[in-house]
Amino acid sequence: MGRFRFLTAGESHGKGLVAVIDGMVAGLPLSEDYIAQDLKRRQAGYGRSARMKIEQDKAEIISGVRHGLTMGSPISLLIWNRVWEDWQEIMSVAPIGKKIQPITTPRPGHADLAGITKYGVEDIRLILERASARETAARVAVGAVARRFLNEFGITIHSHTLSIGKHRAKQPRSINWKQVEKSPIRCADATAEKAMMAAIDDAKAKGDTLGGIFEVIAAGVPVGLGSHVQWDRRLNGQIAQAMMSIPAVKGVDIGGGFSTAGAKGSQTQDVIGTSPKGAALPWRRATNNAGGIEGGMSNGEPIVVHAAIKPIATLGKPLPSVDLRTGKKAEAHYERSDICVVPAAGVIGEAMLAIVLTGAMLEKFGGDHLKETWVNYKNYTGSAYSRKRYATS
Ligand SMILES: Cc1cc2nc3c(=O)[nH]c(=O)nc-3n(C[C@H](O)[C@H](O)[C@H](O)COP(=O)(O)O)c2cc1C
After folding, report:
1. Choice among 5-14, 19-28, 165-174, 303-312 with the minimum mean pLDDT
2. Per DSSP, which regions of the chain are E strands?
3. How many CA atoms within 13 Å lie on the side-chain side of 110?
4. What percent of the chain is helix, strand and coil (3-state, nearest 5)?
5. Considering only CA atoms, which residue is closest to atom 20 of ligand 1?
6. For ligand 1, is residue 338 a contact (CB within 6 Å)?
7. Is 49 in the pocket of ligand 1 (CB under 6 A)?
8. Is the full-model pTM beyond 0.90?
9. Does residue 247's CB lie within 6 angstroms of at least one atom of ligand 1?
10. Mean pLDDT of the chain
11. Torsions phi, psi for 128 (to 5 deg)
């Protein structure tokens, strides 16, 4: 973990979620309203549970910001859980003097069974409360802070839904992000969108769930974030870890990814050419199969990441399991649950990519005040991108 780091805390039905961010520069404009925009985007998406209508997430900034600007000190964020009102007894911090019926029928595909085995507890509630993707609300709040920083350098991050179940969106040449934001499933292809929503309805009616693939794209990333010199400094490795940490993500690839494995080298590498005069970068690529990363470093092309989300584990029609108390067959636990989380997971993917890129930007350009980082960035891009640098004497 580099200089920019964060931790989250909080249970799904506890009082709330907390995030502490360390290493952000001073002088960055930041407001609760800015963070709220991303939290709202995470809550949307056709196929989410009724909980998302109850919660109206807002992160309170508890520290690290004064008069609208970051101070360079740790930024702490607090998101209250609205559901807490109804869970005060079950999730009480203090003993309540009576026994609450434990959950003892683990859900296949969830953290339940491995968790109670590992932590030596009997009630699955103790595991599912933190394994729940409610935690990702705190990550999205952290991601919004990172996004605010990246904005200063013209770096933008978007996501869209590529597939849900068997239905795959056609990949347009350029994506209309406004349309994606309006789509109930964050899909750029209106025809596929209908089929995807119908598939979600069908899964819901059958007590089933659906997975899919989302794509995250970061544009405006300077050349040279990450490094080839050490395994843990490779940007693609850091991105893969960040994406894989999103609950229910089972696969990640970058650029052409898995599809490049079956292609020839001549079809895969992104041919290098000269940019027209006046372009920011002197060189350009004919294609972007590398997904913006070569040798563990950003190469100036958009960073393109895909993540595969498995169908989530809590089924309306529960799967067979066992009751751990009796050892007898039983239906797996059911508790209010989403049907499909691919669109929301895309927003979480944006946050994770923003966090990784912010860490990499601060590693490369340093600085304790935004102005200092900016000067370093300008000095670097001014000289590193200059055509003159390559001219032989
Ligand atoms: C936005 C989002 C919402 C989720 N909602 C649910 C849910 O309602 N029910 C469920 O069983 N899993 C849900 N999951 C997935 C579980 O959190 C995840 O499958 C579980 O923690 C086990 O981890 P694993 O699938 O990575 O192995 C959600 C995931 C995301 C990204």
Report:
1. 165-174
2. 5-9, 16-22, 26-29, 59-63, 65-66, 69-71, 75-80, 156-164, 167-168, 212-219, 249-254, 272-274, 283-285, 293-294, 297-298, 303-309, 320-322, 329-331
3. 27
4. 35, 20, 45
5. 110
6. yes
7. yes
8. yes
9. yes
10. 95
11. -70, -25
Mean pLDDT of 122-146: 97
How far apart CA 209 and CA 107 sit, in angstroms, is 13
Specify whether the CB–CB gap between 147 and 158 falls below 8 A: no
- Model confidence pLDDT, tens digit, residues 306-344: 999 999 999 999 999 999 999 999 999 998 889 999 999
Determine contact, residues 309/348, Cβ cutoff 8 Å: no
161 Cβ below 6 A of ligand 1? no
45 versus 70: which is more confidently predicted?
70
pLDDT digits (tens, 9 = 90+) for 347-359: 999 999 999 999 9
CA distance 36 to 352: 17
Q: Give the ligand 1 atom nearest the CA of 250.
A: 26
Tokens, residue 88:
């005060």
Q: What angle do CA 205, 208, 209 make, to 5 degrees?
A: 115
Distance CA 305, CA 363 (A): 21
Query: Would the CB of 217 count as within 6 Å of ligand 1?
Result: no
Task: Give the model's confidence band at 393: pLDDT under 50 very low, under 70 low, under 90 confident, else very high.
Answer: low
Q: With contact defined as beta carbons under 8 Å apart, do 132 and 343 qualify? A: no
